Model the fold of this input.
Amino acid sequence: MPSPNGPDAELPPEAIAALRQGLKLDAIKIVRAATGLGLRESKDRVDGYIRNHPDVGRAIDEVAAVAWQKTRPLLIGLGVLVLAAAIWFVLGQAAPASAP
Done:
């Protein structure tokens, strides 16, 4: 039987629902609010639940993969924009000043 305060303790139903949606941070917040535990203890409890319930871990991984797929084009575009700005700046510095 899991210890009521250990990492293998059961979570509130709201925290389990959040985990099944891939919302690990929300689950930690819910555990903190429901139990009065600190951040480290709440995180350990949520991590312990994920270790003991691999299906929940897969749900979190799937949400992270979808988030990465949505974010990757934005990051690539931002990188191209920064590179273009750096090239513009360097070329602007290298151009000789025009005389009047």
Q: What stands out?
A: Residues 92 and 98 are 12 Å apart (CA to CA). Helices lie at 13-20, 24-35, 39-52, 54-94. The mean pLDDT is 86. The two ends are 86 Å apart (CA to CA).
